[in-house]
Amino acid sequence: MNSQTPIMPRRRFIAILGGGLIFAAGAGIGGFALTRTPHHALAAWDQAGQQSEPRRYALSYAILAPNPHNLQPWQVDLSEPDVVTVLVDPARRLPETDPFDRQLTIGLGCFLELMRIAASQQGYQLDITLFPQGSDNLMLASHPVARVRFVAARATADTLFDNILQRRSTKEAFDVLQDVSGDQIAMLNPTIAGVGFAGTRDTEQVSVLRELIWQAYQVEHKTPAKLQESIDVMRFGKAAINASPDGIDLGGMPLEAMMALGMLTKPSLATPGTIAYQTGLDMYQTMFAATPAFVWLTTPNNSREAQIAAGQAWLRLNLMTTQQGLALQPVSQCLQEYTEMEFHYQRVHELLAARGETVQMLGRLGYAPAAARTPRWSLDEKISIT
User: Which pTM value belongs to this model?
Assistant: First the structure.
């Protein structure tokens, strides 16, 4: 789940540019509203559970699942009674950093598991058939990802449901003075068949992993095509976020004032030597250093089915961390399968996987303030056939 971006939290960006400069910028943009919250782009969070039809009820929560760069790659077909056919939107691929659609497939696994959890609240079990027309390990095809039949069977309500609306991927420095215990890590095991779970708070191992994820992040940031892929899906300001509620959202004051003055632009983010470009590096170095613990998921192979299972496990892990008051952030650069990342890909597998296994997800774990909600397309926008 590559949710990393070269963008800095606005308070850090402000600190780097300097208070006086921001004050002057704010004074020159008198027409800006005091609040720039993109309410339209966040409406899906408030509308979850408002649908009465069982499939739509479950899907209204499923669309809140974590996914690569928040591109929300799912489409659903509801033309068959009591069935949801899950499709992939090929326009939502990330071919530079996720050339084989591995992370995209994991995101679809998160979507399926969140649908299952929500359906259980109304007593429905899900009969899920993965890739009913086959799959391709090189790239997801236009064939269905899953055929999901809703079965009224008085299913036991999943207790993780209560954490769905508070779940976040937290892209912040964690509180290194607040310890994560070994017992807490052990309690996070999502127990999905075929997925191994492990974690560490060991000082030496954490230090090695901190350095690994920082080195891998630099590779992505300093490889122009990889960085540009992230920049291309950035949404600058409230109007752009509301118009396209996906990708990497940048909004609110004073960021929008800086955008209006040309101080924060997509070209500046892509250009070495600019404040925006360097801050993307500096703030991630600081953030990664503030990591007290790590967790990761492995599978015996790298099949599409294994990737879906890893997504299901990651979604449950994220809900479990929410339940415990912990913060979790996926750090996926070192798991990406392109040439420039090969050394770090091999290194993370040497450290965390047995021979033949695939490390599907790696996450920072700790304590941090609550993160903001991310934009979402409405459910109606994701139904391909009604």
Answer: 0.91
